[in-house]
Amino acid sequence: MATEETLVLVKPDGVARGLTGAILARIEAKGYALVDIRLVDPDRGRLEQHYAEHEGKPFYEPLLEFMMSGPSVAIRLAGNRVIEGFRSLAGTTDPTTAAPGTIRGDYGRDWGLKVQQNLVHGSDSPESAARELGIWFS
Ligand code: RTP
Ligand code: MG
């Protein structure tokens, strides 16, 4: 199988809380390769592209506001089955119930806000990865 790539974001809550290093350490310990990494302060247009699938959902506007609240670290990550592998490292969407041992499960919680602040993003398919890498590394 050809080596796969995914887009990982350390979202604004992860950067603001100083967890970028801890999250990168988990990714490196798992053995995936960092191909590119950059700090990005995304404008609304970039986020509308990234989250197009969620437009119209109740959490869409709070999600864009949250993602514009500070910079994210964008990572181009490579390895066999890295898409499902990173999502497994990240844990499920809701950090309150994400399994301990995952990034969201160990570092995340419900802060009583309008959107899940869950520290990281990982592409969910090869098609999403190609599209999202184009948005964040253009
Ligand atoms: P991601 O795309 O960030 O890797 O996370 P995911 O697949 O686990 O979650 P997804 O359903 O794609 O949702 C994207 C992001 O929107 C926020 N969200 N908040 N009900 C809520 O408050 C809610 N639902 C989703 C989260 O930040 C989620 O990661
Ligand atoms: Mg998603």
TrEMBL record:
It catalyses: a 2'-deoxyribonucleoside 5'-diphosphate + ATP = a 2'-deoxyribonucleoside 5'-triphosphate + ADP. Its cofactor is Mg(2+). Pfam families: NDK. One of its GO terms (molecular function) is metal ion binding. GO terms for biological process: CTP biosynthetic process; GTP biosynthetic process; UTP biosynthetic process. Its EC number is 2.7.4.6. Keywords: ATP-binding, Kinase, Magnesium, Metal-binding, Nucleotide metabolism, Nucleotide-binding, Transferase. The active site is at H121. InterPro entries: NDK-like_dom, NDK-like_dom_sf, Nucleoside_diP_kinase, Nucleoside_diP_kinase_AS. It comes from the Bacteria. The keyword Kinase applies. ATP binds at K11, F59, R87, T93, R104, N118. Belongs to the NDK family. This is Nucleoside diphosphate kinase. It comes from Microbacterium caowuchunii.
